[in-house]
Amino acid sequence: MTFPDLLRVAAMVFLGVTSVVLGDTAAKLLSAEGVEPMFVAWSRFALGAAILLPVSGMVFSELRLLVNRWILLRAMLIVCGVSCMLIALKFEPIANVFGAFFVGPIVSVVLAVLFLGERPSLGKSVLLMLGFGGVMLVAKPGFGMTVGLGFAVAGGCFYGSYLAVTKRVASMYRPRLLLMSQLMIGAVVLLPVGVSAPWPTPELSLWALVLASAFGSAFGNYLLVLANRRADASLIAPLVYSQLLSATVIGGVVFFRVARSLFSDRPVSYRGVWCGIAAAELAEADIHTSHNGPMRDAQAGSVMTTTGLALRSGRPVR
User: Which of 36, 51, 133, 217 allows an S-S link to 23, with CB 3.0 to 4.6 Å?
Assistant: First the structure.
């Protein structure tokens, strides 16, 4: 893969995960208005399928693929991941949720190594471990873990498995078909809980947020499917940590909570956020390394050392 191709993949992943963050931000706002998370989850799949079906190019003969075991598994994993994520957003600040959610890339790479035969480089492995450290700082397993963070970690595990299965099938089916399959299956699976949950009041602002949640999630996952067709899961996974940067910035702008938590008794764990951001920055350094050789290794190591010292000392990373 050429360096321009690597940059295109990185841009595609960043735009994709940022779109997902925008969708989840809309879901967080809906939750603040009292809308049930399971209604938001069902509406994401149902509205996404309804909006994108006319432009998906899907034909009647392709419906049989919806019962393919890999297609079904992939759809069920994203359904579980989205549901856990939206429930977590009901209880936790968005930056904390994404911090715990990012156990997903580690799960993705482990599955890719075990079942897809990928062999990540040392640099990519270091990036993942740094990101995993950020997850531990946020989630505090067994020591400060909350119900919301538990759902976020579970969602991350489902999402990491979804990424690995997406890599498995990305070269077998066209991207729009994969997107439509997960939307249609998700809409059907969540239909009972979606229609039984209380619906939002008929206010334009609320339904605009419902549409934003559905479109942001669908567009973001479509871009990630395209990225998985072009690069290994071990390259995609560290880049996904750039979602933490999007979550922190967008969450701060929307909720005015950069300096304090959305909930006064649950401060945002910015050390974990910085770990994820550092992992995303190092992923870019790793891309340079793969293209320009070992001289970039020293630069990547310098960035990692500076970030690690800052995290240990508690001072801001600049």
Answer: 217
Q: What is the enclosing helix (H) or strand (E) of 16?
A: helix 3-32
Let me know: does 268 contact 95? Beta carbons within 8 Å.
yes
**Can you give the pTM of this predicted structure?**
0.69
Instruction: Tokens 């910015």: give the residue.
Output: 270
Beta bridge partners of 263: 266
Q: Please state the φ and ψ torsions of residue 216, each to the nearest 5 degrees.
A: -60, -45
- Evaluated on CA atoms 276, 281, 285, 291, the torsion sign reads positive
CB-facing half-sphere around the CA of 221: CA atoms within 13 A: 32
Please name the residue ranges forming H helices in the chain: 3-32, 37-52, 69-91, 94-101, 104-115, 122-139, 147-169, 175-189, 191-196, 204-230, 233-240, 242-255, 270-292, 295-313
Rounded to the nearest 10 degrees, the angle between the axes of helix 94-101 and helix 69-91 is 140
Does pLDDT of 7 surpass 90? no
pLDDT in tens, 117-132: 777 677 767 766 776 6
**Confidence check: pLDDT of 162 > 80:** yes
DSSP string, 130-187: HHHHHHHHHH-TTTT--HHHHHHHHHHHHHHHHHHHHHHHTTTS-HHHHHHHHHHHHH
Spatial CB neighbours of 58, under 8 Å, sequence gap ≥ 6 = 176, 177, 180
> What distances in angstroms separate CA 172 from CA 15, 39, 268, one per listed residue?
24, 32, 41
Rounded to an integer, what is the distance from CA 197 to the centroid of its chain?
25
Identify which has the larger pLDDT, 10 or 182: 182
Q: Amino acid identity, residue 141?
A: P
Q: What is the pLDDT of residues 90-106, one digit of tens each?
A: 888 777 787 777 778 78
